[in-house]
Specification:
Order of helices and strands: HHHEHHEHEHEEHEHEHEEHHHEEHEEEH
Bound molecules: pyridoxal-5'-phosphate
Number of strands: 14
Helix content: 40-55%
Radius of gyration: 22 Å
Distance between the termini: 65 Å
CATH topology of the largest domain: Aspartate Aminotransferase, domain 2
CATH superfamily of the largest domain: Type I PLP-dependent aspartate aminotransferase-like (Major domain)
Number of domains: 2
Shape: globular
Strand content: 5-15%
């Protein structure tokens, strides 16, 4: 080549779209990098307990998938999902109180992609989305890409304050209402029955899609099961599911349960994004579920997380100074802490890292700013012994600073 590439090519000057340049990297992923350093106890992620991954079953099923489905497990497959898996998902949803047909289902690469596809399908730049305050930061990241604006709705121990939702709809004409109704990320709060009913009623009254991002419903280790928004609202609700928290996130399998007219649109968006979700992963989970392994496995997860939550609560009582409050979730992976006003959880993080413990500070979960005095502690991933030690280290830090 006559022309010198090094001299003439300046990738730093290429015209990346301004809205991409404006995107911020995920703070959780940044903190997770630090958390993987040796000796650091991490409460930062929403990572499942690695000791619970059903490795022996998955190993056996990998072989069975290859024997049973042969090349089909490695071939391109349908954008909606591998047909027997789609059928099984519809059946399980119907059995859980939400009548679902195959045409309501689209398999995705995790719940995160489900959020992303919904965002792509609905949001034009400047559109409003109603979100809980705080809300799942990954959803904000996906919505930000499409230049959404937010209407944050305050929460209490029963979930979002639904009476604020109707006024917000009238004022902002939002495209979507996004909620994590069960054991919310980041707070661990579950919506009360009354609020569920009221939220669906508002969504129906104004015909606004209600997105229920639902990764944690099955991980309830205390209290009574709540009625699913989808069971109340039917076609008013687009429900997002995942096997990340119940089997393994690395397989990247989630799915959307939505009304038929929307599923055709989402299918087109899925095709634009990645054609289809991994055939092999779908067959793997299909067999895991079909062989009746998932429900007993979820029972194991629940027992493990209950013990870890209890250990964390007990350790917080023991080591934390007064003036700090926290949630007591009946399921899921997270506790949410409020420090005294004026104390910044972000400012405390470098010292926490010195002491060998990490967490996620709460402010990125607030779409309109605020929440500086909050933090999220994930209890699913560390061992019980590490929870005791990690909370002790955090306690030392808080005693120093508060
Ligand atoms: C509320 C919520 N939605 C979606 C996701 C993404 O899950 P997945 O691994 O299925 O993409 C998470 C993961 O932590 C989550 O907490």
């Amino acid at each position: 080549m006559a022309i010198s590439v090094n001299e003439h090519v300046h990738p730093e000057k290429w015209l990346i779209a301004p809205h991409v340049i404006r995107l911020e990297t995920s703070i959780i992923r940044e903190i997770l990098k630090i958390s993987s350093q040796p000796g650091v106890i991490s409460f930062a992620g929403g990572l499942p307990a690695p000791e619970l991954f059903p490795l022996d079953d998955l190993k056996r099923i990998c072989g069975q998938v290859i024997e049973t489905y042969g090349p089909a497990a490695f071939q391109y497959s349908l954008s909606r999902g591998v047909p027997p898996f789609v059928g099984l998902l519809a059946e399980r949803a119907s059995n859980s109180g939400c009548p679902t047909e195959r045409e309501n289902v689209l398999v995705t690469a995790g719940a995160h992609q489900a959020i992303e596809l919904v965002a792509r399908a609905f949001i034009d730049p400047g559109d409003y989305v109603i979100v809980e305050n705080p809300t799942y930061v990954g959803a904000l990241q996906a919505f930000n890409y499409y230049q959404a604006r937010y209407v944050p709705i305050e929460m209490d121990r029963e979930g979002m304050l639904v009476e604020q939702v109707e006024a917000s709809i009238r004022k902002f004409s939002p495209k979507l209402i996004y909620t994590v109704s069960n054991f919310q990320n980041p707070t661990g709060i579950s919506m009360s029955e009354g609020r569920r009913q009221a939220l669906v009623e508002v969504a129906v009254k104004y015909n606004i899609p209600l997105i229920d991002d639902n990764p944690y419903r099955e991980i309830r280790f205390a209290g009574r099961p709540a009625t699913q928004l989808k069971a109340i609202g039917g076609d008013a609700v687009i429900e997002l599911h995942t096997f990340s928290k119940t089997v393994a996130p690395g397989l990247r399998i989630g799915w959307i349960n939505g009304p038929k007219p929307v599923m055709g649109q989402l299918e087109k968006v899925k095709q634009c994004t990645d054609l289809h979700t991994s055939s092999f992963s779908q067959y793997l989970i299909y067999e895991f579920v079909k062989q009746g392994l998932i429900d007993p496995h979820i029972e194991k997860i629940k027992a493990n997380y209950l013990e870890k939550r209890n250990t964390m609560l007990h350790s917080l009582e023991k080591h934390f100074p007064s003036g700090i409050s926290w949630t007591n979730p009946e399921g899921g992976l997270f506790l949410w802490l409020e420090l005294p006003k004026g104390v910044s959880a972000k400012d405390l993080l470098p010292r926490a890292i010195e002491l060998g413990v990490t967490y996620v500070y709460g402010s990125p979960f607030f779409s309109a700013g605020g929440g500086e005095n909050t933090m999220r502690l994930g209890f699913s991933n560390p061992t019980v012994a590490d929870i005791v030690e990690g909370v002790k280290r955090l306690g030392t830090l808080l005693q120093e600073r508060i």
